[in-house]
Amino acid sequence: MKNLAKWTVAVGTIVTAVAVSAKDFAIYDMMDYVGKPKDLTSNKISRAMLIYESELVKPDPTGKRKHGVLNLDKVIELARRSKREGYTVISTDIESWFGNKDGQLLSPEELRHDFELMFNIFKHENPDAVISNYGLPTESLSVIRHYRGEVPYQVSYDKWKEFNKRRNQSGAISDYANPVLYIVNPDVKTWEKDVSHTVQEIKNRNPKKKIIGYIWPQYYSAKNSGYFKQFIDPKVWRQMLEISYKYTDGVMIWSDKRDENDKIVRWEDPRVQAIMKETQAFIRAHEKDIKVEGVRKK
Prior knowledge:
Layout lengths: L3 H4 L18 E5 L15 E2 L1 E4 H4 E2 L10 E2 L1 H13 L4 E5 L14 H18 L4 E4 L7 H8 L4 H12 L3 H5 L15 H18 L6 E4 L18 H14 L2 E5 L15 H16 L13
């Protein structure tokens, strides 16, 4: 652990994985449908490395920090693996740090320290790494609106802005913004408003930072929404892609393995393939602007 000191210094010049062009829009594959091919780059869908919290965080040996601490040995191992396997774009998924756990709430400074340490380890072991974390630097406005219930939009918006304050410092040291843009119901018009506010919030603080948002081919997993994990209508999905293209620099298409009935979903499922058909139509419509990021050959 003698190298930890140099890993904790501030991140230097950010390495960009994607060259600047007229639009330069990338679609990254983060889907977990059973039987999905590992590499979709032939379909102009890029590869990125997604690393979940369970692989990065362990219980605090002292028992003092309820949110756990970085598993530094595992972080180093994963950083080296990202280099070995040729990944450049990396998204970590640590979510519990942002919430209240057994009465504890991590300060913005604590969050920044730990994210910076983790990011610097990756960038030391893999100098080509471009890294951020799921939900940096903003909470999901659509999800907050849903859980706030029947209140005016401005009320949810103000609460969202308040929640974002704890993430700002960590978002500032990430290589790209990685907001969560899941949709809760078919109201695409209001969802676009959420996306617009999210992008504006990010650009106000980090005007040069690329924005790559998470989207999901299924409605968000809110059990009281009436749309819990149902597959989005392909035409609505196409609208979401076009809106994402309008406001952001790319999307990460995420999924787990199950549908609204807790049934395993396979890649060849007609619902998945209908989504992919619209995704391919979107790619063809914007072919000149689609950037494909694979893994770098050794």
